[in-house]
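task queued by scheduler; priority normal; single chain, no ligands, no partner chains; default sampling; output format set to structure tokens
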Amino acid sequence: MLVKIKNNIEEISRICDIVRNFCVQNGVSDEKYHDVVLILDELITNIISYAYPDGGERFFDLSLEKNDQYIVMNVIDDGIPFDPSSQADPDVDSSIEERQLGGLGIFMVKQLSEVIEYSRVDDQNRLCVKVALCNKNKEENHGD
């Protein structure tokens, strides 16, 4: 399934509806639906908020697939280069007062997914995120 998304925060609710229908049609559990929605909410919000600093109406792509092991999300935008997989994890052990702002959303994406692959091709950010259909240990999924 391929969806064009406008760089407008109001698109988030439309994407949630699309993901809900996709998950129902593909027999995906409510738990995994919530994981996918949280991931996409974070990724799409980041693109809308930061990828196009010059403003203006822009569009980017989201594809959703389900195979035997994963729900696969591919997000492709032509915004400024940004690799979420290379971002350092925040210090979640220190107190709120001691923590630096930001980084928790990407950290959550990393925690909820098994695979995050980023590339920059033809002036486009290409991000592939995979969520396992069954709850496995992440180390078991490398190489899938």
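post-processing summary
- The helical segments are 11-25, 30-51, 104-112, 138-141.
- DSSP finds four helices and five strands in the chain.
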